[in-house]
UniProtKB/TrEMBL annotation, chain A:
<feature type="domain" description="ABC transporter">
    <location>
        <begin position="10"/>
        <end position="250"/>
    </location>
</feature>
<keyword id="KW-0547">Nucleotide-binding</keyword>
<dbReference type="Pfam" id="PF00005">
    <property type="entry name" value="ABC_tran"/>
</dbReference>
<feature type="domain" description="ABC transporter">
    <location>
        <begin position="264"/>
        <end position="505"/>
    </location>
</feature>
<keyword id="KW-0067">ATP-binding</keyword>
<dbReference type="GO" id="GO:0005524">
    <property type="term" value="F:ATP binding"/>
</dbReference>
<dbReference type="InterPro" id="IPR003439">
    <property type="entry name" value="ABC_transporter-like_ATP-bd"/>
</dbReference>
<keyword id="KW-0813">Transport</keyword>
<protein>
    <submittedName>
        <fullName>Sugar ABC transporter ATP-binding protein</fullName>
    </submittedName>
</protein>
TrEMBL record, chain B:
<feature type="transmembrane region" description="Helical">
    <location>
        <begin position="263"/>
        <end position="281"/>
    </location>
</feature>
<feature type="transmembrane region" description="Helical">
    <location>
        <begin position="111"/>
        <end position="136"/>
    </location>
</feature>
<keyword id="KW-1133">Transmembrane helix</keyword>
<feature type="transmembrane region" description="Helical">
    <location>
        <begin position="313"/>
        <end position="332"/>
    </location>
</feature>
<protein>
    <submittedName>
        <fullName>ABC transporter permease</fullName>
    </submittedName>
</protein>
<feature type="transmembrane region" description="Helical">
    <location>
        <begin position="182"/>
        <end position="203"/>
    </location>
</feature>
<keyword id="KW-0472">Membrane</keyword>
<feature type="transmembrane region" description="Helical">
    <location>
        <begin position="68"/>
        <end position="91"/>
    </location>
</feature>
<feature type="transmembrane region" description="Helical">
    <location>
        <begin position="143"/>
        <end position="162"/>
    </location>
</feature>
Length: 509, 355
């Protein structure tokens, strides 16, 4: 506790969190003051989410961690304590039921206004109206929230969190509140947040968008690799400085360690005019043996690119394959014929089948090649799968083990094996290293380089900047559905990438 | 990663650790895997002690097989759509329609019995296509969609029959398809065995069968490997339509009369058997082997109860209770095991946010 203890709302001291085999947080200390907007920034895997989950009472911190709320020391936070102490959380997905109205969504969280045994709908609507009015928002509380603007849904989630039915609200934690907002609506959200501040509630604001933080927050705490890199006043901070704090000083060796590019002069494919929900005319050329990265914040079109490119999601695309044939539109079937393999993140629900064994998952995309006389030949299928298990060191090495029982890294290897097994010309990867440990990460990089050396092209879409530094020859930075910058070779550093993807956010409608 | 091939713990690729044969054998015989078989054996033991004179006879075995072979055909018809994640609740009505249609054709045309059987099955194929139009093309939930088509089919059946029981020309050569017997075992038992093996081969040995399971578990994964999920489901519905229709035709031949009220009563036992069967042998996957064991187990219990002098409504209570008990025991048994196995790779969940 510092001398200004009366002003400190939450004191976090020496908080750590160790998961089996991984230290997510170590010795994190900072304070959130009353009436401030406190930003929390850090790369993926820096420990932000873990910290928030500790505050929410979802994870128990390591022994020795100290958290005090308004002077009250807490050994372990349970969700009930969290509520009692006035901490409220609004997550990125908002937690609203889309088909229900604002009035109903409010009721779901904190109970319905009742008249006898029956819900008093008029009263319930008045309550929702009043909650929204407190933060200066007026919406039709009887309309299904799906029919409202994105920022109105955010406002409903915030208003609902601030319902003081269960006591005074002290801190509102917002996790990536603008990730799903159209840029034009970001300012409206900020107005709401200022209203929240007026209510005497502090805000912990988690975001990747440096511009927003610079424009909105009073102070910022930076996490890197699970450690706190300090808390800084926003006054006097600029984007370059903040970016450097987040990614750390670029190690010169990092870029030098990258193996030499094996890109050839031959074209693997050319893509033009990709359009989708967010993508707005993205095009690029990929050469055989080249590893092309696609960077971007959420909402930039980065999440969509892999799916549109392989026909998994609807969208427009014109594609010229390695043989010079032009195709317009894409379906999974055509992608397979062209040798385009969509390698999804292991946490993606459509990456693999949990109820299938390793064997069935690995062979699924290549089953017809094991068929002789109408039967899938077990020995051949098994032989192929066992080779991949050995090659990729999948553990356990039992082909009949159910996929859902594997660890994240091993799941990712099974997904990779499924597509490696089809000998694709181009691998389209979506977040290939999310949820895998450091060893598996380097294993995946090694595999990408190895396949690239044999002439396969790679499109690596990732939310993790380390992936680009680690494995890409060239990176396209997407902003607002368009290519905003292109970096190649030694230019690919986390700092430059971060600056490229946060450029102009919020201004490019 | 391929440098890891020379990993001390995994000396050889070919070793790909399969559970030792003895353990696999033990696992294959465990209650968890074949609980219904043990319940079946227990039932036989109970009746053998309770009513040895009535129960321990060749007749009993024949009665169970002959009487329950049509239930078995009905149950087998839905196994394939269920693997693809589609409910076909119209099979009972399809049975009724095909049964009435075949009797009507016999009574009103000169077509030979074989042609009549083929037309009946053909009608089932059309029903399947119609179901596919609703479930696959119009994307109406199969539970609702096939419930609706079932209702329409029942009405058509009633219309064709004029709410009469049709019997003309049904006895004669036509009824041979159901009543000819080989050593006391009637033809429908043979159909059941052939169909069970055929479906088992299809689901477990062919690529299309694997795609059926994949479609049921995760249609999107299946679509992304280039398989037409819509085609898989369409064919599954056509298959269930054909088999259900065949079951209906055989039912008409067997009782030598077509009653429009007959088919629908088979739907619930069929689903009971298919779901109970899914808990057997293949750990949660719908499969024909478990389905047939389930039918025989339910049949044995019902026939045994009737032999013991229980009232006619007793078998239905028995069937419902056994279904709950068997599936319940399997669920409870499986729970701690699954927890123990999933507990191992507990990984921290890194930031779900992006960039």
């Amino acid at each position: 506790m510092t001398a200004v203890a009366t002003e400190t709302l939450i004191a976090i001291e020496g908080v750590g969190k160790t998961f089996p085999g991984q230290r997510a947080l170590a010795d994190v200390s900072f304070e959130i003051e009353r009436g401030e907007i406190h930003a929390l920034v850090g790369e993926n895997g820096s420990g932000k989410s873990t910290l928030i989950k500790i505050l929410a009472g979802f994870h128990e911190p390591d022994p020795g961690s100290r958290i005090a709320v308004a002077g009250e020391e807490l050994k372990a936070l349970a969700p009930a304590d969290v509520r009692r102490l006035g901490l409220r959380f609004v997550h990125q997905d908002l937690g609203l039921v889309a088909e229900l109205s604002a009035a109903e969504n409010v009721g779901l969280a904190s109970g319905f206004a009742k008249r006898g045994p029956k819900v008093d709908w008029a009263g319930q609507c008045r309550r929702a109206d009043a909650l929204l009015a407190r933060i200066g928002v007026e919406v039709d509380v009887e309309l299904p929230v799906a029919e409202l603007r994105a920022v109105e849904r955010s406002a409903i989630a915030i208003a609902r969190a601030l319902d003081e039915l269960h006591g005074e609200i002290r801190l509102l934690v917002l996790d990536e509140p603008t990730a799903a907002l159209p840029p034009a609506e970001v300012d409206a959200l900020f107005r709401v947040l200022r209203e929240v501040l007026e209510q005497g509630v502090s805000i912990l604001y988690v975001s990747h968008r440096l511009e927003e933080i610079l424009g909105l927050a009073d102070r910022v705490t930076v996490l890197r690799d699970g450690r706190c890199k300090g808390t800084f006043p926003i006054a006097g901070m600029d984007r370059a400085r903040l970016a450097e704090l987040i990614v750390g000083e670029e190690v010169e060796a990092d870029a030098a360690q990258r193996p030499p590019s094996c890109a050839t002069e031959e074209r693997a494919l050319t893509v033009r005019g990709m359009r989708g929900a967010v993508l707005d005319g993205v095009g690029f050329e990929l050469r055989r043996g080249e590893v092309l990265g696609i960077a971007g914040l959420s909402g930039s079109g980065r999440e969509e690119l892999a799916a549109v490119l392989t026909g998994a999601a609807p969208g427009q695309i014109e594609l010229v394959d390695g043989d010079g044939r032009t195709w317009s539109g894409m379906t999974p079937k055509r992608a397979k014929q062209l040798g385009l393999a969509l390698v999804l993140a292991n946490r993606h629900p459509d990456a693999a089948i949990g109820q299938f064994s390793i064997r069935e998952n690995v062979s699924l995309a290549q089953l017809p090649s094991y068929v002789r006389g109408g039967r899938v030949r077990g020995a051949q299928e098994r032989g192929a799968v066992e080779r991949w298990i050995a090659d990729l060191d999948i553990r356990p090495d039992d082909p009949d083990r159910l996929y859902s029982y594997l660890s994240g890294g091993n799941k990712q290897k099974v997904i990779l094996a499924k597509w490696l097994n089809t000998s694709p010309r181009v691998f389209v990867m979506d977040d290939p290293t999310s949820g895998v440990d450091i060893g598996a990460r380097h294993g995946i990089y090694g595999l990408v380089r190895e396949q690239a050396a044999t002439g396969a092209g790679f499109v690596v879409c990732s939310s993790d900047l380390e992936d680009f530094v680690g494995v890409c020859d060239r990176v396209l930075a997407l902003v607002g559905g368009r290519v905003a910058a292109e970096l190649s070779g030694a230019e690919i550093t986390e700092n430059r990438l971060l600056q490229a993807i946060v450029t102009q956010t919020g201004k490019n409608a | 990663m391929s440098q890891n091939v020379v990993n001390a713990e995994v000396p050889s690729a070919a070793r790909g650790r399969r559970a030792p044969a003895a353990r696999r054998f033990a696992r294959g015989l465990s209650f968890r895997t074949i609980g219904a078989v043990y319940v079946w054996l227990l039932l036989i033991a109970v009746f053998a002690i309770w009513i040895p004179d009535l129960f321990l006879r060749e007749e009993t075995l024949k009665t169970v097989l002959n009487q329950y072979s049509i239930t078995a055909l009905a149950a087998l018809s839905i196994v394939v759509p269920l693997t693809t994640g589609v409910f076909d609740l119209s099979i009972g009505s399809t049975m009724g329609l095909a049964g009435i249609l075949s009797a009507w054709l016999l009574g009103n045309t000169d077509l030979s019995p074989l042609i009549v059987v083929l037309l009946g099955v053909g009608a089932g194929a059309l029903v399947g296509l119609f179901n596919a139009l609703i479930v696959v093309r119009m994307k109406i939930d199969s539970f609702i969609g096939t419930l609706a088509t079932g209702s329409i089919l029942a009405a058509i059946t009633l219309g064709i029959s004029g709410d009469q029981i049709l019997t003309e020309r049904v006895a004669g050569g036509f009824s041979d398809i159901a009543s000819r017997d080989i050593g006391g075992i009637q033809l429908p038992v043979l159909y059941m065995i052939v169909l069970m093996i055929a479906i088992g081969f299809f689901l477990e040995q062919t690529a299309s069968g694997r795609y059926c399971y994949a479609t049921g578990y995760n249609p999107e994964v299946t679509r992304l490997v280039g398989v037409s999920v819509d085609r898989v489901r369409t064919l599954a519905l056509v298959f269930s339509g054909c088999v259900a229709a065949f079951a209906g035709v055989v039912l008409t031949a067997r009782i030598q009369a077509a009653d429009p009220a007959n088919g629908p009563s088979y739907m619930i036992p069929a689903f009971s058997a298919a779901f109970l069967g899914a808990t057997q042998f293949r750990h949660g996957r719908f499969n024909p082997w478990g389905t047939i064991v389930a039918v025989l187990m339910l049949g044995t219990g019902s026939v045994g109860l009737l032999l013991a002098g229980a009232p006619t409504w007793a078998p239905q209570i028995f069937q419902g209770a056994v279904l709950i008990a068997a599936v319940g025991v399997t669920v409870i048994q499986r729970r701690p095991k699954a927890d123990a196995e999933t507990a191992k790779p507990a990984e921290p969940e890194p930031a779900p946010s992006a960039a």
